[in-house]
Each structure stands twice: as C-alpha cells, then as structure tokens.
Design goal:
Layout (H helix, E strand, L loop, with lengths): L1 H11 L14 H10 L4 E10 L21 E11 L9 E9 L1 E2 L2 E2 L6 E11 L3 E6 L6 E2 L7 H11 L4 H6 L4
Parallel strand pairs: 3-7
Antiparallel strand pairs: 1-2, 1-6, 2-3, 4-5, 6-7, 6-8
Helix pairs in contact: 2-3
C-alpha cells in the first residue's frame, strides 16, 4: 500500500497547479504601485456606473490559456472628486473606460454599479481615464470605505509612498 501511495504521489508531482492566488486588495499597496509606475494615475473617490449593458467576459478554455487575448472594454461614468495631497478636488463627472483582462484562464470582471469607491484611474491624453481590472484586481476599493482611508492616501501622496504601517492598516480589504 505504501508503494502505491509513493508511486501515485510521484505521478502527480509534475502536474501544474490550476489555481490563482491573489493578494487581497489593499489601497495603500495600490497607491505605491501607481506611484512607482511610469503611467500617470488619478486617485479619486466616488461612484462608477456602466453606460449601457455590461459586456460578458467569456471564459478562457484551458487549451487557449497560453494565447494572449485583448482586453474587453466598455464605458462607465465616474461621479466624484479627485484625491490630492492636501485636499479633495471639486465634484466632477467623467467618462471612464473600464478594461478587463485575463491571466491564463483567470479573468477580471466588470463591476455592476459602485456607489462609493476609491479608484486609481490611468490617465492618458489619448484615451482619457481608464480603470484596469485584471485577474487580481487592485485598482479600486469598494464600499464600505474605512474611516481615515482618504486621509492616509493623502499622507502617502505627500510622502511619496505609503508605509508598511499604512499597508497593514488596510490589509483587511
């Protein structure tokens, strides 16, 4: 019996695991990633609502997981305020392109409506504001927004990065 168990275990050893392990969303870590990026980001708090029907993200078949699939995009409307280092910007409403991508067989998904969230929008002169949602989404935090989150993100903005303590504080998102 022991020989069978060892042979069975040895036969399974070369198989790949079919699971994706994502870090829990953390707004302090998302700030640090956005700040370190070459991409220009706008940090904002408000609502995000789809314009029209939300497209379906078709599943990726196991045999197609190595193929690169272009992101699926649709338009949403953001209403809220930008978060600056010392204050909040004025209220604004703007179109946002939401771009959903896949990693292997795992894909992000389009949100329904988000009534109160903190977002890290990519900003480009060509495309305007874009929210990237991958298999492990990290560019937005849904309600309920923890007390003090905006103030901590403003402090991170002033300091150029969020501290380990900031990341620990918001590790429960």
């Amino acid at each position: 019996m022991l020989r069978f168990a060892l042979c069975f275990a040895a036969a399974l050893a070369p198989m790949q695991a079919a699971a994706l392990s994502c870090l829990a969303p953390n707004p302090a870590r998302a700030f640090n990633e956005a700040h370190a990026s070459e991409t220009v980001y706008v940090m904002a708090r408000g609502s995000l609502k789809p314009v029209g029907a939300i497209p379906e993200v078709p599943p990726v078949k196991m045999e197609e997981q190595q193929l690169t699939r272009p992101p699926i995009r649709t338009t949403y409307t953001f209403s809220g305020r930008s978060i600056g280092p010392f204050s909040m910007g004025g209220s604004e409403t703007a179109p946002v392109e939401v771009s959903v991508s896949c990693l292997g067989i795992w894909c992000g998904g389009f949100p329904q409506s988000i009534e109160d969230g903190v977002f890290f929008f990519e900003k480009s002169p060509e495309t305007g504001l874009t929210l990237q949602i991958g298999a492990c989404p990290s560019a937005h935090v849904n309600a309920p927004i923890q007390d003090g989150l905006v103030e901590v993100l403003q402090k991170c903005f002033r300091n150029g990065a969020c501290s380990e303590a900031d990341m620990e504080r918001f590790s429960l998102y």
